[in-house]
Amino acid sequence: QNQIDPTLMEAPAATFEERLTAVKKSVDTLEKEHGMLSAMDIVLNHTAGTAPWLLEHPECAYNITNSPHLTAAAELDEKLQWFSRELRDGRHGGGHINNHGDVDRVLDGIRHNVLGPLSLHEYFEIDLQACVSGFSRSSVRFEREDFGALKDSALPSIGVKRRGVVVPGDVARRFCRDEGHLRGCLGRLQDELRGEWHSTEGDIFGSLRGGITYDRLECRKGPVGDGDNALTPSYFRRLKLTDAAKQRLGKDTEVVAHNGWVMGWPATEDF
Q1: Are 170 and 133 in contact (CB under 8 A)?
Q2: CB burial class (10 A; 0-12, 13-18, 19+) of residue 68?
Q3: Is residue 262 within 8 Å of 60, Cβ to Cβ?
Q4: Which pairs with CB-CB distance under 8 Å and at least 24 residues apart come from 208-214?
Q5: Alpha-carbon distance 174 to 207, whole Å?
Q6: Crossing angle between the packed helical segments 128-137 and 179-212, to the nearest 10 degrees
Q7: Quick check: 259 and 235 in contact, CB under 8 A?
Q8: For 124-133, how does the pLDDT look when each residue is reduced to its tens digit (9 = 90+)?
Q9: Judging by beta carbons within 10 Å of its beta carbon (0-12, 13-18, 19+), is residue 79 exposed, middle or buried?
Q10: Alpha-helical runs (H) found in 127-178
Q11: Angle in degrees, 0-180, between the axes of helices 147-154 and 179-212, rounded to the nearest 10
Q12: Other C-beta atoms within 10 Å of 240: how many?
């Protein structure tokens, strides 16, 4: 963001200062001779993953620290990129996808080598002990039975950690008469979450089948390779942080989402 692209000029000057002077002259000419005002748009949410400021401040992005519900999706994304490299290197039948049979082979490989080992269904499992403990500690008064409110309160914790879906204690107290009622509601909720996982798993395979079929059979992108020719696009990036960021954040890397890196929109709605 702090450079002027020389390819935008017919005869670019050698230094940044000279190129900046040329831009200023162009802006002045537009305003004084043509009555046009100019605006500069720095599109920070399109920043490259190697930008120094992002490696210094990964908190500018949606990441698995400030948006922990993305954790399960980030795990899946990294594992799919691994499987893409496996195909590229000739394993699991190789990266040539020329017909629907090849698509089925690749999807079967994803089922057994990606989705199976990841056990993402665990992100849809309730932490019963945490829910009951929160209920016991809360001093909120019971108001009414409301299973829908209990479910809504648990949804933000899906995808955060394995076996970590939680109904906050105050919510449980407000909408459950006693611990027995709470346990019954949690059993019902767990059944519904299992259904949600099966639906999500179906969506995953449906999306993968559609994308792979379009790229390899309709667009004929050729064998699986690197970059834009990977099996699937990557929606996350693991940043290697600067030394200053490592010291400040207490970790060497951060996983960030590619979408809307510095936008102030709520991540649960935007991504």
Answers
A1: no
A2: middle
A3: yes
A4: 208/107, 208/110, 208/232, 209/103, 209/107, 212/97, 212/103, 212/106, 212/107, 213/100, 213/103
A5: 39
A6: 140
A7: yes
A8: 999 999 999 9
A9: middle
A10: 128-137, 147-154, 169-175
A11: 50
A12: 13
Spell out a b/e string for 13-26, using b for 16 or more CB atoms within 10 Å of the CB, else e.
eeeeeebeebeeee
Residue at token pair 């993968």: 208
Which of 10-24, 37-51, 97-111 has the weakest average pLDDT?
A: 37-51
| Residue 271 and residue 67 in contact, taking contact as beta carbons nearer than 8 Å | yes
Residue 270 tokens, joined: 């935007």
Q: Which alpha helices (DSSP H) does 50-142 contain, by range?
A: 52-56, 71-88, 100-110, 116-118, 128-137
CA distances from 193 to 57, 129, 179 (A): 35, 17, 20
CB count within 10 Å of CB 63 equals 22
| β partners of residue 257 | 236
- Asked if 204 and 121 touch (Cβ cutoff 8 Å), the reply is no
Asked whether the CA dihedral 129, 132, 133, 134 is positive or negative, the reply is positive
Mean pLDDT, all residues of the chain: 91
CB 30 within 8 A of CB 40: no
Looking at residue 34, its pLDDT comes to: 94
What are the CA-CA distances from residue 226 to residues 86, 196, 217 (Å)?
11, 33, 18
The answer on pLDDT for 271 being more than 90 is no
Amino acid, res. 88: R
